[in-house]
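Amino Acid Chain and Its Fold in Token Form
===========================================
Scope: a single protein chain, as residues and as a discrete description of its fold.
Amino acid sequence: labelled as such and written in the usual single-letter residue code.
Position: the record begins directly beneath this header, with no further notes in between.
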Amino acid sequence: MLFRSVSQSRYPTPEQALSIWRMYLQAQKNPKIKVVISEYNSPVKDMIAYTQQAPKDATVYIAVGQDEADDENYAQSLQKMFGDKIKTITVQEKDGEVSAPHVRTLVQQRDFEGFKETVPEAAYNRGAALKVWKMLTATIPQQAPEEQQPEQEPQQQTTEPVSDQG
């Protein structure tokens, strides 16, 4: 399961994020992955609830960006709660930054060339980049040139748990 927080940011909306993930997964199908909107302000709380309800022999994989993998407190707390049931997968970014704040900045700056580099290759090859771009530019306001600064990374840890118990 991939959890998208309801309060991480106004853009994209949780519904837009769900639609984007569905486009990506349609391009590269994986029946073991299910995307849902988080019931809590933090997808981590949903991940904990999901892990508690998963069968005892299930393994829950948590994908974290390379820069987040060093957060020992987070990993240690999950290990204390769930032991070997939790497996962390470090995801290396392909050719640069692919964080939500970075993508929002590209959209606010109306930088389609930079934006399309953040779209997964399989989805890009099926035309998802332009569809997602149109969806986001219709709702994310354009930043005035004097306001254009890189968006700060949120302080909240964001992870996407994935279970092999599809």
Confidence is low (pLDDT under 50) at residues 151-166.
